[in-house]
Structure formats: structure tokens, C-alpha cells
Amino acid sequence: MKINRRTMLASLAACSSHLIAQEPAKIDSTLYIPKAHRVEDLKLLHDFMDEYAFVDLVTSSPMLRITHIPVLVDRAAGNYGKILGHVSQQNPQSQAFDGRQTSVVVFRGPHGYISPTWYAKKEAVPTWNFAVVHATGRPAAITDRTALHKLLGRLIEKFEGTEGSGYDFSKLPESYVSPMLGGIVGFEMQIESLEGKFKLGQERSDADKQGLLEHLGHTKRRERSLQDLTASFYKR
């Protein structure tokens, strides 16, 4: 049997293209992280994400959108965990919850200005210290109403639990909850890449670190509390 070499090569090329298409896309870094500020301790990152769970959800298709929402982190899912949350049904960002489009969830912690005068060696420049975690993945919509109801209950339990108010979402009548569920779109996002940047002066000398801690506790620059901001806004 005579083998057509051209046909065989074309077939191999097609097969190779198919295999390449099946490989997961490489996740590019979403922020610049010097080696000294990179944190890869998964437990530390998860603890940080749980503590600072009011996030920026960033999607780029069909248009650039950023929504600010509380989320849940399921630590046990996959290599890095899974993020669950919801947005308003009126929010165009829900169009990105197709399980294919790459998105970033940004967890932001405390931040503050650092004066060079706080260091043991004064020959320095000012900087800004902060901590963030970027989680990258492809969010998919939660279409099952039972799963959506469970998600909403878990979210409320997480944040209401710290208030000790006794509020019980499960006791709300179905006639109230059902329309509310119809007004939101839930999503779950398997984390494919997790980046931790903790710029806290950890690369500096022990004397500099001590100076940072001492002055951060007495800095005159203080952000207003949510209570103060809300009160002043009401008085406009």
C-alpha cells in the first residue's frame, strides 16, 4: 500500500493543532511583584482572602467591567480553591460568566504611606505599603436555583455571624426569597492562578522594621471610618 506523504503530514499537523487547542491557556501575571514581596504560602493567602472578602471583580469581555462585591472562598476546591459570589441581574458583567473568559478577583488589605523619617537610615524615599491577592480564573454562572439559594445563605451567614444578631436567612418566606433570587446572577470561579503581593517592608533591616511598626501605630494620617464617611455623606 502506497502512503501519500503529503496527506500523512497534513493529518499529523491537524492532530497536533487539536492537542494544542486542548491544553489550558497559560495564565499571565496580573501584577508586578518583586521577589521580596511575593507570598506563596497558600494558607496565608486563603486566610487573607477570607478576612478581606469584599473584592474587586474584574472582567474584560464583552466590555471592561469592575464590580465590588463580597465573596466566599472554598479552600478545598482544586489546587488554589474556588471563589463564589453574585452580581445584579442588571449588571452587564454577568455576560462574562460563561466559563471561558478569564477574570481577576482582587482582594485588598490595609495600606498606608511610609515616611523615610521612620527608618533607622534616613537616606531613603517615601513609599506606600500594602497587601493584595489576585485570583485569576474563568467564572461560570450558577444556574441551579437551589445552589444559588445555598450560596446566598452561606454569604449571609459568613458576614452576619460576626454581628451576633440572630438573623436567620433560612426563615424568610419563599414568597420573599424567590423574587430576590431572580434578581441576581451567581457565579463560581475555579482559581487557576493565585498571586500574593505583601509590600510591608519585610526586606528592610530589623531597625527599620521596628521603626515602621512604632510609627504606623501613631501616624497622623487616618482614613475615615465607614461610619464617619456615611454620616458626612448624609449631611450633604
What does this structure look like?
The chain is an alpha+beta fold and 236 residues long. The protein has one domain: Roll (Pnp Oxidase, Chain A). The chain has six helices and nine strands. Strands 1, 2, 3, 4, 5, 6, 7, 8 and 9 form a nine-stranded antiparallel sheet that branches. A hairpin with a 5-residue loop joins β2 and β3. The radius of gyration is 24 Å and the shape is globular.
Can you describe this structure in just a few lines?
With 236 residues, the chain is α+β, with helices and mostly antiparallel strands.
Give the quaternary arrangement of the chains: single chain
Superfamily at the CATH H level? Electron Transport, Fmn-binding Protein, Chain A
Report the total helices.
6
Mean pLDDT across every amino acid position: 90
The 3D shape can be described as globular
Query: Which CATH top level class fits?
Result: Mainly Beta
Radius of gyration: 24 Å
Q: What is the rounded distance between the termini?
A: 88 Å
Structural class: alpha+beta
